[in-house]
Amino acid sequence: MRKLKLEELGRDNIAQYQDREKINISVVLDNIRSAMNVGSFFRTSDCFALSKIYLTGITAVPPHPEINKTAIGATLSVEWEYHKDVAALIKVLKTSGSLILGIEQTDKSIPIEEYTIQDKNRSIVLIFGNEVEGLSESVLPLLDDSIVIPQFGTKHSLNVAVCGGIVLHDFRQKIKKASIKY
User: Fold this and answer.
1) Residue 19 CB: number of other CB atoms within 10 A?
2) What average pLDDT does this structure show over 106-121?
3) Burial of 87 from C-beta contacts in 10 A (0-12 / 13-18 / 19+)
4) Number of domains in the chain
5) What does each C-alpha distance from 43 to 9, 64, 79, 146, 170 come to in angstroms?
6) Which range marks the domain in which residue 30 is found?
7) How far is CA 123 from CA 10, 51, 163, in A?
8) From CA 51, how far away is CA 80, in angstroms rounded?
9) What does the pLDDT read at residue 181?
10) Model-level pTM?
11) pLDDT per position as a tens digit, 66-85
12) N or C: fewer beta carbons within 10 Å in the chain?
């Protein structure tokens, strides 16, 4: 066994990546404090070929040194937009027909392993909240569903970027399993 060299991985260059078909999932980052977490979301979104990242509120935007440190160039490949008001953005996305899913611990949260995609033709928007406060209260009434990653230790939550990696991988698998065309 040997590790592969970067040139052996067969990855797209930025132009090829931007031209390829993306999975019909977008991410909303709601008031993320750490620019390094934002950069991690860019890198993970590139990995899974997501449609777009929406940055809202106090969330840092590219170019930013801490985003660049963890994104390692993914800010150039992943499409993104900034919106000051997360609730206004969600209302627009909901009006366009997107399925709006919050990643949050609520009294109605569905464990991620139990969640199934019902409508294979809808765009999916996954909203991740602030590292301390979670999703903004203004977002909760706009959600179609709330998803939670069950936890079995003493901590109340995962790092938001770690949570993002788990959720985005899971949803990529759900789409593949459901044979949803993307």
Assistant:
1) 8
2) 93
3) middle
4) 1
5) 16, 14, 12, 24, 16
6) 24-177
7) 28, 9, 20
8) 9
9) 52
10) 0.95
11) 999 999 999 999 999 999 99
12) N
